[in-house]
Design goal:
Layout (H helix, E strand, L loop, with lengths): L3 H6 L6 H7 L7 E3 L5 E3 L15 E7 L9 H14 L4 E5 L4 H5 L7 E2 L2 E4 L1 H5 L5 H21 L6 E6 L3 E3 L9 E3 L10 E3 L1 E3 L4 H8 L3 H9 L4 E3 L4 E2 L7 H7 L7 E5 L4 E4 L14 H10 L2 E5 L4 H16 L5 E6 L1 H7 L12 H19 L5 E6 L6 H13 L3 E5 L1 H4 L5 H12 L15 H13 L3 E4 L1 H13 L6 E4 L19 E10 L4 E6 L18 E3 L2 E3 L3
Parallel strand pairs: 3-16, 3-17, 4-15, 4-16, 8-11, 17-18, 18-19, 20-22, 21-23
Antiparallel strand pairs: 1-2, 2-14, 5-6, 6-14, 7-12, 9-10, 12-13, 14-15, 22-23, 24-25
Helix pairs in contact: 3-16, 6-7, 6-9, 12-13, 13-14
Length: 556
């Protein structure tokens, strides 16, 4: 079979103006970035919905990730194409890839095989410049804070009480903790700080949760940057930075329209990670997809315990969304890994290993039930999967009373996911009631953390370090106890220990810090050894990327 790059490069795609027209988007509502991508004016959301009835929203999530691969984004894309195959109006709402994973270990995030969004090379790299704009906005705030300190302005910022860090959209471990202001009195005041990857920055979170320009400014203006010597809070208006940030993000806030290999419209916009941020594409892109189509297919990062929990408890609550079904992606290979099979032996047929690994999938099915939304298990088929192994998953899913479908969208595109699409339609159209959040906003912060840790992760209890307990006191003193929580945790396990695969039992989750993201409107809870700036692996993907005869090669 041809490589993903060869497949993507072999399809010219429909002119983006025609893709837009299929959604009812007018010419004057488009801002072109070449022939194959465009931004869409937010004014569309001010008018009535352009389809009859109410659009339905489908979330695609997955079991706990493994090196064997699950294919959540690929499944989302294939499912969107399948809706087109059966004559349904569908639109995707996906996150933008970060350069960090593209150049690091994970690779790109535009799907694979015959289920990709295109132009994949541009989407995976600079795309329309949104990430660069967000990085610049974040770092402008940092620079203006340091400028006020250098000139000893009337704001009286305490250099030891600066919360705001710089950001960069690459994996760079040496920047996690830095000292700035070295080189003499003209270079600023020396102090410790650090960098987060852009996907983990609060500007990215504000960007993805805002419902428009006015809402973005409101969120920006309440963002907590630092404290004065007197203990007063410093926010962007205090350093007269809000206007410049808004100007930098004027075009970035408009969702990006592209398409799949089969011409299904796709909004690709925003890109927070789910292990260190809230892991969902922008609210604006989701709302626009729902405004213009009958079925919106979106995904949340990593396993259900991370991206999907935050999708429900943060994004849906804040944006007033009521999802109609959840697709839970699993693979035979990943289930075998959860069943104890090492990577080098995954190609050997082993139905019993699949059975041993099923408890991880079962736990995620149970987690979906917490939110009162119907589930469909999608078995993302690989070429080496045997009928006996697939039969085990079907048998166990039926025993759990959950809908199940095998999907071969990687090899067959939309046609390979038609059974999955029909199962999703059945689930969505038989949904009863509205989704239920996991906790109440009025619960204490400790109780909210414990609710996620015990109900979703399966922990026995939560341990708070002395630093975390001090952070919780600050949260209460500053009046932020009613915010939802965004737990930063390893994606490789239901626990906070990345080595524990399957369905861990008898474990505790350790909270080491709680940070206030007042602009985004949530508290970031750091657990285990999770870091907000990844590092490159021994052999980064960047080693394989090149430009040959005008064509980018090596992206994966």
């Amino acid at each position: 079979m041809r490589s993903d790059v060869e497949i993507a490069n072999s399809v010219d795609g429909t002119p983006i103006a025609e893709v837009a027209a299929s959604l009812g988007i007018k010419e004057e509502e488009l801002f072109y970035y070449g022939k194959d991508k465009a931004k869409v004016d937010l004014s569309i959301l001010d008018g009535p919905r352009r389809r009859p009835g109410k659009g339905k929203l489908i979330l695609v999530s997955a079991i706990t990730p493994t090196p064997a691969g699950e294919g959540k984004t690929t499944t989302t894309i294939g499912l969107g194409q399948a809706f087109g195959q059966i004559g349904e109006s569908a639109c995707l709402a996906l996150r933008e890839p970060s350069l960090g994973p593209c150049m690091g270990m994970k690779g790109g995030a535009t799907g694979g095989g015959y289920s990709q969004v295109i132009p994949s090379d541009q989407i995976n790299l600079h795309f329309t410049g949104d990430f660069h704009a967000i990085t610049a906005a974040n770092n402008l705030l940092a620079a203006m804070l340091d400028s006020h300190i250098h000139f000893a302005s009337k704001v009286h910022i305490n250099p030891r009480k600066i919360l705001w860090r710089r950001a960069l959209d690459v994996n760079d471990r040496v920047l996690r903790n830095t000292v700035v202001g070295l080189g003499g009195v003209m270079q600023g005041i020396p102090r410790e700080t650090g960098f987060d990857i852009t996907a983990a920055s609060e500007i990215m979170a504000v960007f993805c949760l805002a419902t428009g320009y006015e809402d973005f400014r409101r969120r920006l203006d309440r963002t907590l940057l630092a404290f004065t010597f007197e203990g007063e809070t410093i926010r962007p208006p205090d350093i007269k930075a809000s206007g410049a940030v808004m100007a930098l993000l004027k075009e970035a806030l408009m969702p990006n329209l592209v398409q799949t290999l089969e011409g299904t419209p796709a909004f690709v916009h925003g890109g927070p990670f789910a292990n260190i941020a809230h892991g969902c594409n922008s609210v604006l892109a989701t709302q626009m997809a729902m405004h213009l189509s009958d079925w919106t297919l979106t995904e949340a990062g990593f396993g259900f315990d991370l991206g999907a929990e935050k999708f429900f408890d943060i994004k849906c609550v804040k944006a007033g969304l009521d999802p109609d079904a959840v697709v839970l992606v699993a693979t035979i290979r990943a289930l075998k890994m959860h069943g104890g099979v090492p990577v080098k032996e995954l190609d050997k047929p082993d139905p019993e290993a699949v059975r041993r690994g099923f408890p991880n999938l079962a736990k995620h099915i149970e987690n979906i039930d917490h939110f009162n939304v119907p589930a469909v298990v999608a078995l993302n088929q690989f070429g080496g999967d045997t009928p006996e192994e697939m039969a085990v998953v079907r048998e166990l899913c039926e025993a759990k009373g959950v809908r199940f479908a095998v999907s071969n969208h990687f090899a067959e595109g939309g046609k390979g996911a038609v059974d999955l699409a029909r199962a999703v339609i059945d689930a969505a159209e038989t949904k009863e009631g509205h989704f239920t959040p996991l906790y109440e906003r009025s619960d204490s912060v400790e109780d909210k953390i414990k609710a996620v840790a015990t109900k979703i992760y399966g922990a026995n209890d939560v341990i708070f370090t002395k630093t975390a307990l001090k952070d919780l006191k600050d949260v209460e003193r500053l009046g932020y106890s009613d915010l939802p929580i965004c737990i930063a945790k390893t994606q490789n396990s239901l626990s906070d220990d990345p080595k524990l695969r399957g369905r861990p039992e008898d474990f505790e989750v350790t909270v080491r810090n709680v940070r206030i993201n007042a602009g985004a409107g949530f508290l970031v809870v750091l657990t285990g050894s999770i870091m907000r700036m990844p590092g490159l692996p021994r052999r980064p993907a960047a080693e394989n990327i090149d430009l040959i005869d005008g064509t980018i090669v090596g992206l994966r």
